[in-house]
Amino acid sequence: MRVVHIATAFPRSDGDIITPWLVALLEALGEHGVTVEVLAPAYRGGGSGSFRGIRVHRFRYAPARLETLTHDETVPDRLARHPSYAALLPPYLAGGSLAATRLGSLRPDVVHVHWPMPHAWFGALLRAASGGHTALVSSFYSVELRWVQQRLPSLTPFLRWSIEASDGVTAISSATAKRVRSLADRPVRVIPFGAALEPPTDVPIRPPLAEDRPLELLFVGRLVERKGVETIVRALPRVLERRSARLTVVGEGEWAPVIREAVARARVEPHVRMTGQIPATELERMYADADIFVLPAVIDRKGDTEGLGVVLLEAMRFGLPAIASAVGGIPDIVRDGQTGWLVEPGDPGALARRILAVADQPSTSRRVAQRGREWVAERFGLSRIATDLIDCYRDAIATRRGP
Question: How far is CA 180 from CA 153, 163, 263, 281, 307, in A?
């Protein structure tokens, strides 16, 4: 089976942190006998080539110095912060359309579109250029749905068409699937993405939390509004009233100055470390040394939130007790009191109380963390996800070509 994946961004070189989960997924598909190729936009003139043995077709859409619409941040975030980038959308659509049409000569079995707004158009063109041979599968990740429905409602008919024109539709969470079905009466498979960072097989569940050392709290992710990092910063003084604690924030992004301001306002500078982006080996050490992982996601001003939460998968696979907000796709991963704990988004008091409760009940915390690790391995393992996708591909091919 040959599958072409269409994505907004794909790693440009070794060490690039862009979409590691997608690379891991494509490698897993390859291990299951699927030949995969990628169509993605160029970044600052970067051309086509290969990445870890995956053939990558990059389309140009502007002079090299202007090709920065993607990769650095999501397109909706880029447009919100710099509206002038909207001028790149027409050439982006033109460049992607031409490249997709040319790839029709490959006659792949499936074209798998990630972020169908607007990439479903590219997928439909590739399908047409293949003589109708290729099945179209569209995967939704929440952000594009909210972006259109709340910011660009005039594009809702295109969004609905992208669902109806697909031979197969997937969503990364139950919440996202519900949004898709509200737009079009189509079956939607919930197929999440998996964690790119695999823990060593001998990583133990963390030992009980000792009172004679600081409680190590960890957040990992892009520093954007919807991650809600200020909530844990505001919760920290309440935790410190009961016991010593340290918060490590791993990641970078445009929201970093806002988080630093929140740290200063809460007067917790000695207890917070912001590392920026770090290598995978160092991140593994961070997971191994932490006591509790926290993802305090919120709904941001654009109406966006976590579609799933891949860092939760990583943390739970490393055996960490996980506390996260009951929002977006997070409840698909964290089942309150069973695989982790859920709190209301944006409530520092509730978050502080939950952190202290987890710290005060080490045996319960270890038991829940063990169940969380088992649940993530069972439901979100790359082999399981690859198998589910291949089943989706086969059904889409049957829909396109007939029995």
Answer: 15, 8, 38, 37, 13
